[in-house]
Amino acid sequence: MSVLLLALVVGGLLAVWFARDTSHAIPDLVGLEQGEALNTISEFDWEETVVLEASDDVPVGEVIRTDPAAGGRLDVGDAFTIVVSTGPAPRALPELVGLDVEQATAALSELALVLEIGAQPFDEVVPVGEVVSWTVPDQPGLVAGDTVLPGTPVVVVVSAGPAPRVVPDLTGLTPADAQATLEGLGLVAAPLPDEFSPTVSVGAIARQDPAPGTEVPRGATVSFAVSLGPDLVVVPPLADLGVDEARAALEAAGLVLGQVKGDPAGVNVLAEVNGVSIGADASFPRGTVVDLTFAVPAPPPVETTPTSAPPG
């Protein structure tokens, strides 16, 4: 009887043992450090596996997720995976040469990299605003395809375009020489109508625009006018003219009446330029001052009629 009772007791204990619940609720481990997370589940006797994974959002060493996720239950010996962050994934550097600053900035921002503008040298070939070269300051030997961490600065060298040109002095050159000089500087020659010049010989450049020494961009236009020489006018006939008549004749010819000498009530008897007597048909630059001397003509001699002797 006692043996039977003992058997019943042992059987009941075994039934209770085998009938007990050996599963455990899966806790929320996301955001915990790897060591803390493993300690939390150490008494559950699960088959734990730690998987490392890059993450831009979860700090290094913290749990990103678990498999199964929190909320379920696992029995003793069941598999349980913890995914732990290794920090941000390295970024492959893109090629930036040939992009403009906006495009380069967008390419780097997409990779969480930072664009910094460095030198901006003049370049005769690369358009203004385009990336000429780039480098990673902390690792200057890196090239496109090499990897860096997010937040790494990338310094770009950006073209300022062609250097400005200083307009040369074209005065006195022939048109052909002036054009060759301008073309050699990457400038464009634009002839103006020929014009008179009191100082520049016929056929040479007398005037230009812009003035010598002006800075202009490559491809700018420089205009120039070729000298026709001095603007000469002919002195009109002035002899026997009064002051007002002489002034009008000089002005119509492009000359200027200077000093009026002698008797202004008379007629012109002498014309001078710079103290030198001149005659009609002489040529002078337009605007030359002509001094005139006036005199009242002597009255014509009075003719006398011979008288006859009275008859004797």
Automatic annotation (TrEMBL):
<protein>
    <submittedName>
        <fullName>Unannotated protein</fullName>
    </submittedName>
</protein>
<dbReference type="Pfam" id="PF03793">
    <property type="entry name" value="PASTA"/>
</dbReference>
<feature type="domain" description="PASTA">
    <location>
        <begin position="20"/>
        <end position="86"/>
    </location>
</feature>
<dbReference type="InterPro" id="IPR005543">
    <property type="entry name" value="PASTA_dom"/>
</dbReference>
<feature type="domain" description="PASTA">
    <location>
        <begin position="87"/>
        <end position="160"/>
    </location>
</feature>
<feature type="domain" description="PASTA">
    <location>
        <begin position="161"/>
        <end position="228"/>
    </location>
</feature>
<feature type="domain" description="PASTA">
    <location>
        <begin position="229"/>
        <end position="296"/>
    </location>
</feature>
